[in-house]
């Protein structure tokens, strides 16, 4: 599974601490979104914005690792599917409503 990350999960040491490995990663860009702050938490979030983009990276993870990342992100975030500038389809965490 491919997930696009843009916040704390771009930090290699954190990914290793959570997943006990360094998943394959590639720099990429999400067009049509901008980086903001979560409405409730003091953490990054992204929202749609046609003129903007968010730089980040893709991680190639397993379904079990997605469950670990879901717990890390908490119920304050949900996953949506997006297409990245590279053409890669990926999941990305955005604020839950």
CATH class assignment? Alpha Beta
Assembly type: single chain
Indicate the CATH topology: Hypothetical upf0131 protein ytfp
* Count of the separate structural domains: 1
The topology string of helices and strands comes to EHEEHEE
Q: Identify the CATH architecture.
A: Roll
| Contiguous uncertain segments of 5+ residues | none
CATH homology-level superfamily: Gamma-glutamyl cyclotransferase-like
- Shape, per Cα inertia axes: globular
Mean pLDDT: 97
Q: Strand order within the widest sheet? A: 2-3-1-5-4
How much is the radius of gyration in Å? 13 Å
Please give the share of residues in helix: 10-25%
Q: How many strands in all? A: 5
Q: Structural class, from helix and strand content?
A: alpha+beta
The main sheet comes to: 5 strands, mixed
Number of helices: 2
In percent terms, what proportion of residues is strand?
over 45%
Give the N-terminus to C-terminus distance in angstroms: 24 Å
Which features characterize this protein?
single chain, 97 residues, alpha+beta, 5-stranded mixed beta sheet, 2 helices, 49% strand
Helix-strand blueprint:
Blueprint: E1 2-5, H1 12-19, E2 25-37, E3 44-60, H2 63-73, E4 77-83, E5 89-95
Parallel strand pairs: 1-5
Antiparallel strand pairs: 1-3, 2-3, 4-5
């Amino acid at each position: 599974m491919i997930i696009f990350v843009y916040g704390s999960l771009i930090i290699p040491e954190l990914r290793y601490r959570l997943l006990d490995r360094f998943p394959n990663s590639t720099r990429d860009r999400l067009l049509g979104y901008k980086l903001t702050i979560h409405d409730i938490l003091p953490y990054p979030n992204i929202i749609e914005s046609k003129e903007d983009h968010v730089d980040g990276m893709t991680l190639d993870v397993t379904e079990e690792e997605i469950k670990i990342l879901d717990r890390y992100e908490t119920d304050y975030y949900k996953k949506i599917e997006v297409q990245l500038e590279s053409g890669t389809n990926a999941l990305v965490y955005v604020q839950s409503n």
